Structure to design on (118 residues):
């Protein structure tokens, strides 16, 4: 049986903002430039991160969009993450802080046409 070829970007909804922040922070910690995009779609606020799942069988990679959906806009321009024993702390802020992993939030005027959240 042949598997249908993937086209475009695959959207994956995460369970919480903390999950999205943790994922983005893990990429920042590896030295990759990471940002969270924000746009509105159907009255909801969508926050997401692009990633690539490399070398999936014979494909070069699958483009992925991990996103979190909220009823309201986050009050800040950065997601700050500090993961130290015994807890993980995630904050939304208008600035950065020393010792925290910082992920900027980039506001888009509209939803990109290549993202399908259905």
């Amino acid at each position: 049986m042949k598997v249908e070829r993937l086209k475009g970007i695959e959207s994956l909804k995460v369970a919480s903002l903390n999950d999205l922040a943790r994922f983005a922070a893990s990429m920042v910690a590896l030295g990759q430039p990471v940002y969270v995009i924000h746009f509105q779609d159907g009255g909801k606020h969508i926050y997401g991160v692009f990633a690539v799942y490399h070398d999936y069988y014979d494909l070069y990679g699958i483009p992925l969009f991990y996103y979190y959906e909220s009823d309201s806009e986050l009050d800040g321009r950065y997601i700050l993450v500090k993961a130290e024993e015994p807890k993980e702390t995630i904050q939304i802020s208008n600035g950065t802080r020393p010792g925290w992993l910082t992920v900027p939030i980039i506001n888009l005027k509209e939803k990109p046409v290549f993202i399908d959240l259905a």
